[in-house]
Specification:
The complex is a heterodimer of chains A (about 120) and B (about 110). With about 120 residues, chain A is mainly beta. Chain A contains no helices and 11 strands. In chain A, strands 2, 4, 5, 6, 9, 10 and 11 form a 7-stranded mixed sheet that branches. The mean pLDDT of chain A is about 95. Chain B is an all-beta fold and about 110 residues long. The chains are: A mainly beta (about 120), B mainly beta (about 110).
Chain lengths: ~120, ~110
């Protein structure tokens, strides 16, 4: 299965600043996703990162707040913009090797973000 | 709307016993269901997938059942060990036709030596 590296693993940021999270996969994958997981909560899908085009955002998430890039089939970034304490969460990158469905997702270990 | 329910209370069991975790869903008929394990500070790790036409699936000490009438999946770990302690998440494909799974909140399993 794919090996996924996320950077940074954790960060403490000031209110109003932005942070870019990187997700690197050791092989080409069809689909890449970004999730948010708040303490004790389930994973919430933020968006699907599309290679070479704009990401597809889920309801409640917008590009201005969470800009996403995917320049190739092995790399994606998520930026959390103009952060507030409500953005404190774990952000997870995941990938699927096969775009036809019912394939397992492989996750990175996440970025634990705290905003002061 | 689609809803996935997992017991929010932690399940505490003794080593050697069988752990059984439950995933219930409503307003939906998924073609398959997945189970993941998540350890603290780590991302979820895929364990098993079971399709709607499969009643049961096994992998080593793990067993998953899928009852489409009851809209329920049971996840069993036999001969449980302290190393099995983790949060277990069930996931179903989204009701809107997308195959991107929707995850339950997960149930924490604690196996006592």
């Amino acid at each position: 299965s794919a090996v996924i590296s996320q950077k940074p693993s954790r960060d403490i940021c000031q209110r109003g600043t932005s942070l870019t999270i990187q997700c690197q996969v050791d092989s080409q994958v069809t689909m890449m996703f970004w999730y948010r997981q708040q303490p004790g909560q389930s994973l919430t899908l933020i968006a699907t990162a599309n290679q070479g085009s704009e990401a597809t955002y889920e309801s409640g998430f917008v590009i201005d707040k969470f800009p996403i890039s995917r320049p190739n089939l092995t790399f994606s970034t998520l930026t959390v913009s103009n952060m507030s304490p409500e953005d404190s969460s774990i952000y997870l990158c995941s990938v699927v090797n096969d775009g036809t469905g019912n394939q397992p997702q492989h996750f990175g270990d996440g970025t634990r973000l705290s905003i002061l | 709307s689609q809803k996935i329910e997992q017991n929010s209370e932690a399940l505490n069991i003794q080593e050697g016993k069988t752990a059984t975790l439950t995933c219930n869903y409503t307003n939906y008929s998924p073609a398959y269901l997945q189970w993941y394990r998540q350890d603290p500070g780590r991302g979820p790790v895929f364990l098993l997938l079971i399709r709607e036409n499969e009643k049961e699936k096994r992998k080593e000490r793990l067993k998953v059942t899928f009852d489409t009438t009851l809209k329920q999946s049971l996840f069993h770990i036999t001969a449980s060990q302290p190393a099995d302690s983790a949060t277990y998440l069930c996931a179903l494909p989204s009701a809107g036709g997308s195959y991107i799974p929707t995850f339950g909140r997960g149930t924490s399993l604690i196996v006592h030596p």
